[in-house]
Design a protein that fits this description.
The protein is built from 1 helix and 15 strands; from the N terminus they run βββββββββββββββα. The protein has about 120 residues and is mainly beta. It has a single domain, classed as Hexapeptide repeat proteins (UDP N-Acetylglucosamine Acyltransferase, domain 1). The longest helix has 4 residues.
Length: about 120
């Protein structure tokens, strides 16, 4: 977990495999980071695992499911109640089930009049 990153309350990290969370990243309440499932095509349904990676400055908002093997790019935002079943590109806003990119995430300059001096 990177510096200045946060897992909010009730986040479930099912970490049978590795979960990497970059710096300045937030995973909001009730999200589920799931690194394992079962191979339903095999009669024995063996456990299969794959790591999850969430890039720096990303935000996984409330109640998002992130599937095994998924990477969420740097600066990406995944909106509430989405299911991330495939990789999300850097610096986009994604939403849905399955989550898909809907627009770029463009940051605005911090304005002293609104936020005070730094």
């Amino acid at each position: 977990m990177g510096d200045y990153s946060c897992l909010s309350e009730q986040v479930d990290c099912y970490c049978v495999d590795k979960i990497r969370i970059g710096a300045y990243t937030t995973v909001s309440q009730y999200s589920f980071l799931c690194t394992a499932s079962h191979d339903y095509l095999d009669p024995g349904m063996p456990l299969v695992t794959a790591p999850i990676s969430i890039g720096e400055r990303a935000w996984v908002t409330a109640d998002v499911f992130v599937a095994p093997g998924v990477s969420i790019g740097e600066g990406a935002v995944v909106l509430a109640r989405s299911s991330v079943l495939q990789d999300i590109e850097p610096w986009v806003v994604a939403v849905g089930n399955p989550a898909k990119s809907i627009k770029p995430r463009v940051l605005c300059e911090k304005r002293e009049s609104e936020y005070g001096s730094t």
